[in-house]
Automatic annotation (TrEMBL):
SUPFAM superfamilies reported for this sequence: P-loop containing nucleoside triphosphate hydrolases (SSF52540)
Lineage: superkingdom: Bacteria
Biological classification of the source: Bacteria, Bacillati, Bacillota, Clostridia, Lachnospirales
InterPro entries according to UniProt: IstB_ATP-bd (IPR002611), P-loop_NTPase (IPR027417)
GO annotation, biological process: DNA replication
GO molecular function: ATP binding
Protein name: IstB-like ATP-binding domain-containing protein
Gene3D superfamilies: P-loop containing nucleotide triphosphate hydrolases (3.40.50.300)
NCBIfam families: PRK08116.1 (NF005992)
Pfam families registered for this protein in UniProt: IstB_IS21
Organism field: Anaerotignum faecicola
Residues covered by the IstB-like ATP-binding domain: 64-262
Length: 280
């Protein structure tokens, strides 16, 4: 092994020129033959001259380009992981703005929510999307979810049927940890509030999820087929305390729209007829 003193002395020794370099006699530094900027830096250290190697301009540009590409690939991998974790139902991946067919006149508000996400996050503001069955509430919420995930924001979109199936059979401590795990997501989206089982256990767990999110002071988006009047004036005490929590943090937004499922069914039927009739 080389003595440390010899290793340090080596740092002060001149190095050989590479094929794409030349020695600038004006300052005694090695320069790049391509961009004509120095690949050495002049440092005086205790009356000795130290000429450490540095990147010339073209080397720095290439390094910056490679570093930007590396970070971009890391970001894409992060987005992929976020989608796999938070949008586990693969059909949700198609719920994005690029697939919006313009049926929903309220869709601009979804764009606005994404555009003002930082403000929504700071103020813990969510949305309560309500209206009839099949009019695109889930699509609206999914568009927000995908747009934010594409920005690297952790989002979980799920429903209480799935949550309750997981909670059933868990011990109390495990249930608490599972519910608290939702708060690692910057945005939680609960689809179809109100269709869950009406058992005492189910309603208690629904409240625990909503209350945990409420206390975390993180945004929540909820979709429901219930009317705003049903949400505000529930005669069931267990449901009333759930809906009160939701209404305090989630701004109600009625989705006035045609029935998208019926429109899609009609379009599919027309396509099938076109195919079948093409052979006649």
């Amino acid at each position: 092994m080389k003595p440390i003193a010899n290793t340090v002395d080596d740092l002060f020794q001149p190095r050989e020129l590479a094929e794409d370099e030349y020695l600038n006699e004006a300052d005694g530094l090695i320069y790049c033959s391509k961009c004509h900027t120095p690949r050495q830096h002049h440092i005086e250290l205790k009356e000795r001259v130290f000429l450490p190697t540095v990147r010339c301009r073209c080397q720095q540009e290439e390094y910056d380009k490679e570093e930007a590409e590396r970070k971009h690939q890391e970001f894409l991998m992060q987005v992929s992981r976020l989608k796999a974790n938070g949008l586990q139902d693969k059909s949700l991946h198609d719920y994005n703005f690029s697939n919006d067919k313009g049926y929903n006149p309220e869709m601009q508000k979804a764009h606005d929510y994404v555009a003002h996400w930082e403000e929504m996050k700071v103020k813990s503001l969510g949305l309560l999307l309500w209206g009839d069955v099949g009019i695109g509430k889930s699509f609206f919420a999914g568009c927000i979810a995908n747009a934010l995930v594409d920005k690297g924001v952790p989002v979980l979109m799920t429903n209480f049927s799935r949550i309750l199936n997981t909670l059933t059979g868990m011990y109390s401590d495990d249930r608490s940890q599972f519910i608290d795990s939702f708060n690692k997501y910057s945005l939680l989206i609960i689809d179809d509030l109100g269709i869950e089982r009406s058992s005492e256990f189910a309603l208690e767990q629904v409240f625990n999820v909503i209350d945990s999110r409420y206390r975390s002071k993180k945004p929540l988006i909820v979709t429901t087929n219930l009317t705003l009047d049903e949400l505000k004036h529930s005669k069931d005490l267990a449901r009333a305390r759930i809906y009160d929590r939701v209404l305090e943090r989630c701004v109600p937004l009625k989705i006035n729209n045609q029935n998208i499922r019926e429109l899609n069914a009609a379009a599919n039927m027309q396509e099938v007829r076109k195919i079948l009739n093409s052979g006649t």
